[in-house]
Amino acid sequence: MTKTILYARVSTADQTLAHQKTQAEASGFAIDEVVADNGVSGVSTALAERPEGKRLFDILRRGDTLVVRWVDRLGRDYRDVSDTIREFMRRGVVVKTVINGMTFDGATTDPMQQAVRDALIAFMAATAQAQAEATKEAQRAGIAHARAQEGRYLGRKPSYNRQQLGTVQALLSQDAGTSAIAKATGLTRQTVLRIKADPSEAEANLAAWGL
To answer: How many other C-beta atoms can be found within 10 angstroms of the C-beta atom of residue 206?
Structure first.
C-alpha cells in the first residue's frame, strides 16, 4: 500500500509543524505520515545529514508520494536539491510541492518530457538557492539595522511572523501576484506590498522585536 508522507523542516519558532501540515491538507493532500526535523538549518545541512531526513530514504518506497512545502526543504543548495529529487525519482517516489503544486516523478520515458522535467528541476533548485541566499542577506541587513536602532522607539509590532515573511519572499521570487500572496499568507495586500518594497526593513522589524 502506497503512502503520502509530508516532510517538514522546522527551523524557527514560527515554522510550526502543525501549520505546515495544515497548509498541505488545505492544498488537497491526504497525509498518512509526517516526518520532521526540528531546529535544523536547511542552508547548511543536507537532507541526508538531518536525523529525520535520513529516515526518509529508508521509509519511502516505490509508488509513495513525498510532499514538501517547497523544494528548498530537500537540500541546502542547488546541487543538493537537484540530486535529492533525482534520487527519489530513481526510487520511484513522486515528489510534490505545496507551493505551486509542482510534481516531479520518473514515470515518463519520453526524452522530450524528461528534458523538460529535468530543466524544471534545475530551475526550481536554482530558485530555492537564490531565495535562501537572498533571505540570509536580508536577515544580516535586518540584524544590523536593528542593532543600529537599539534604544530607540521600535514602532508598531510587525503584523507578520517569520514564516509568513519567508513565504512572501518565496512567492515574490516566483513572480506571484500581490493578491495571491496575501491569500496564501493571510496578510493584507498592503503588508505584502510593504515587504516587497523593502525586504531588509521587513527583516529589521522582526529582528528589532526579537521575532
So the answer is: 20
Q: What is the number of structural domains in the chain?
A: 2
The 10s digit of each residue's pLDDT in 26-40 is 889 999 999 998 865
Contact in structure between 47 and 56 (CB atoms under 8 Å): yes
pLDDT score at 131: 63
Say which residues have a Cβ less than 8 Å from residue 150's Cβ, sequence separation at least 6. none
For residues 26 and 82, give the distance between their C-alpha atoms in angstroms, rounded to a whole number: 27
Cβ contact 54:48 at 8 Å = yes
- Contact between 127 and 173 under an 8 Å Cβ cutoff? The reply is yes
In a domain, 79, yes or no: yes
Identify residue 165 by its one-letter amino acid code: L
- Reading the block at residue 131, the C-alpha cell is 531565495
Contact 17, 23 (CB under 8 A): no
Give every CB contact of residue 124 below 8 A, 6+ residues apart in sequence: 71, 81, 102
Q: Taking 90 as the threshold, does the pLDDT of residue 199 lie above it?
A: no
Residue 137 CB neighbours (<10 A): 13
Looking at the structure, tell me whether residues 102 and 131 fall in a common domain.
Answer: no
Q: How far is CA 121 from CA 116, 128, 143, in A?
A: 9, 11, 33
Are 170 and 159 within 8 A, CB to CB?
no
- Nearest alpha-carbon partner for 25 in 103, 102, 98, 96: 98
Task: State the residue range of the domain holding 19.
Answer: 4-106
